[in-house]
């Protein structure tokens, strides 16, 4: 149903009125009258998708988690970052071992996000450490365009993303290091963008992907890459999965330019989901936490697990 909602969003982008859908066979959606008792999701032109399922319905949490991504259209694109980290804020050991900080449910979450998005972006460090395939092997749905950012051209072309036909791959490097007449790196297409002193111009990367029709972009990792997009104010949402694990010291998760005062720090509006043994924070970066403050009649402490 989530995949079907993502597909329907483009068809409904210019719809002037709300549209409701019920569940059909095979995970498809069937249009019904707004207000129908069997409706599971509703499209509202100004807001995108919402679910009408009651809180007691076991499908609600999973559908609700992904509806903000499904609501993206060509006119209203979205870029989502993700990191899985330990309780003490690390995504890997110093040696680069990261498989797996988070558990099986979060790994499935990554695959679902890939299936919902048009492009998945990772940095050279992630490719070097994990040799990922960046496909949707564990869930249904299409694999996205794979985008590898390698500003200094540290990678060789023997990694799997450069040598299989599972999905198209873009190899993005600094323009100053692009070779004349070069079109491919392994089987990946070479894309050269302007570089800055601290790496690639990720705004240019986003523009390249938007020009290719990618209006759902998933920045899967690692910490340096997600931080670059976050520092450039290019992320609409940030998923942080926190695992019950203590690494002690290692490769950090988010690293941004430091602030002097806490009042200068962004405290985004968020939702919290249990994901196996992990806790996922779904942060809406364009808003402030005060927009969704807990009402005074809510208990200050609630046991959720």
Short description:
The chain is α/β, with parallel strands linked by helices and 305 residues long. 20% of the residues lie in helices and 28% in strands. It contains 6 helices and 18 strands.
Topology:
Layout (H helix, E strand, L loop, with lengths): L1 H11 L6 E5 L5 E4 L6 E6 L3 E4 L8 H11 L7 E8 L4 E3 L11 H13 L2 E5 H7 L14 E5 L19 E6 L9 E2 L2 E6 L1 E2 L2 E2 L1 H10 L4 E6 L1 H9 L5 E6 L8 E2 L16 E7 L2 E7 L21
Parallel strand pairs: 5-14, 5-15, 7-8, 7-14, 8-9, 9-11
Antiparallel strand pairs: 1-2, 1-3, 3-4, 6-16, 10-11, 12-13, 15-18, 17-18
Helix pairs in contact: 1-2
State the helical fraction: 10-25%
Spatial gap, N to C terminus: 27 Å
Summing up helix and strand content along with how strands pair, one would put the structural category as: alpha/beta
How many beta strands in the DSSP annotation?
Answer: 18
Written overview of the protein:
The chain is α/β, with parallel strands linked by helices. It is built from 6 helices and 18 strands. The strands form 4 sheets. The protein has a 10-stranded mixed beta sheet, with helices on both faces. A 4-stranded antiparallel beta sheet has the order 2-1-3-4, with helices on one face. It starts with a helix and ends in a 21-residue tail after the last strand. The mean pLDDT is 92.
């Amino acid at each position: 149903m989530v995949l079907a909602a993502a597909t329907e969003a483009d068809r409904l982008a210019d719809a002037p009125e709300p549209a409701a859908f019920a569940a059909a066979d095979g995970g498809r959606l069937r249009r019904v009258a707004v207000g129908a008792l069997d409706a599971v999701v509703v499209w509202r032109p100004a807001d995108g998708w919402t679910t009408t399922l009651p809180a007691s319905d076991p499908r609600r949490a999973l559908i609700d988690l992904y509806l903000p991504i499904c609501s993206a259209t060509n006119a209203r694109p979205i870029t989502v970052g993700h990191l899985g980290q330990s309780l003490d804020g690390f995504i890997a050991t110093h040696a680069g071992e990261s498989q797996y900080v988070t558990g099986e449910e979060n790994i499935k979450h990554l695959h679902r996000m890939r299936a919902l998005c048009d492009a998945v972006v990772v940095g050279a460090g992630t490719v070097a450490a994990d040799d990922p395939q960046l496909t949707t092997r564990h869930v249904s749905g299409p694999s996205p365009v794979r985008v590898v950012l390698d500003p200094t051209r540290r990678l060789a072309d023997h990694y799997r993303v450069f040598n299989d036909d599972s999905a198209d791959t873009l190899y993005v490097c600094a323009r100053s290091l692009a070779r004349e007449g070069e079109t491919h790196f392994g089987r990946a297409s070479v894309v050269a963008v302007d570089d800055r002193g601290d790496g690639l111009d990720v705004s240019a990367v986003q523009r390249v992907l938007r020009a290719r029709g990618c209006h759902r972009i998933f920045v899967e990792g690692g910490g340096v890459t997600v931080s670059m997009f976050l520092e450039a104010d290019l992320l609409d949402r940030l998923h942080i999965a926190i695992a019950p694990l203590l690494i002690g010291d290692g490769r950090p998760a988010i690293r941004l330019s430091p602030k002097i005062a806490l009042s200068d720090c962004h405290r985004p509006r968020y939702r919290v989901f249990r994901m196996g043994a992990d806790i996922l924070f779904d942060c809406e970066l364009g808003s402030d936490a005060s927009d969704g403050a807990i009402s005074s009649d809510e208990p200050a402490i609630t046991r959720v697990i």
